[in-house]
Write a structure and sequence with these properties.
By secondary structure, the chain is an alpha+beta fold. The protein is about 35% helix and about 20% strand. The protein is built from 7 helices and 10 strands.
Length: about 230
């Protein structure tokens, strides 16, 4: 007898994910009926099958499939933490995870949805837990965190086996504590969010301080005098 998620296998087999140059978002070939794309990254795309909506399927690009085993091991170490999706199974091509309701913090900023302090506290606790079990909480940013009933759910753990600190969460937290009140409840234009994101990715952290970087951003904040 098939388990709940296995009814999606025939549809999943009709989808191929391709990586893009310069670490761009993947592209998708094939769109079988009943399979809905709910997220796209640089290594994989995530789908929900409407006949088994409690599951999410993270299908990796053909040249990125070595990461399936890495991410499988990460989820197995994470166990059943409430801060992360539930891991059910994996194949050579994809992961089977719990489908998580909610809106990303990225979309919260765009739509003016309030981000409570509890979300920041939850991410801090999740990072502590990740370290306690011997992993490294990296690549935590607005698109990787869901607002779920006032709490945080982190939906991408793919870099937790890599060394080093990318400081993305530390910088987000500092920005939230110092400046979030300027935009809280207000819809931030997409062009502004994307400009900040691109500047951050180009930021020379060795020669420009975080304060100088923030001052540059504040000059483009349309809510500074609002």
């Amino acid at each position: 007898m098939k388990r709940g998620w296995e009814v999606a296998i025939p549809s999943l087999s009709q989808v191929t994910v391709h990586s893009s140059p310069n670490n761009g978002p993947v592209t998708i070939q094939g769109h079988p009926e009943g399979l809905r794309c709910i997220g796209v990254g640089t290594d994989a795309a995530v789908f929900q099958y409407l006949e088994s909506p409690l599951y999410a399927f993270k299908i990796f690009a053909e040249d990125k499939r070595s990461k399936v085993e890495i991410e499988t091991n990460i989820y197995r170490k994470l166990g059943t933490s409430t801060y992360f999706p539930i891991f059910y199974a994996s194949t050579p091509e994809y992961l089977v995870l719990s489908y998580e309701e909610g809106i990303t913090l990225f979309d919260c900023v765009l739509q003016g949805v309030h981000i409570p302090c509890q979300v920041v506290d939850d991410v801090e606790e999740a990072r502590d837990y990740v370290r306690e079990i011997g992993l490294n909480p990296r690549d935590i940013h607005l698109k990787n965190i869901l607002l779920q009933n006032g709490r945080a759910k982190i939906i991408d753990v793919s870099e937790y086996a890599q060394p080093g600190n990318d400081f993305r969460w530390e910088h987000l937290k500092r920005g939230y504590e110092r400046h979030y009140h300027l935009i809280d409840g207000k819809c931030v234009p997409y062009w502004l969010v994307e400009t900040v994101r691109k500047w951050y990715n180009q930021w020379d952290k060795h020669h420009v301080s975080y304060e100088d970087f923030l001052n540059r951003i504040m000059k483009f904040n349309p809510f500074k005098r609002g």
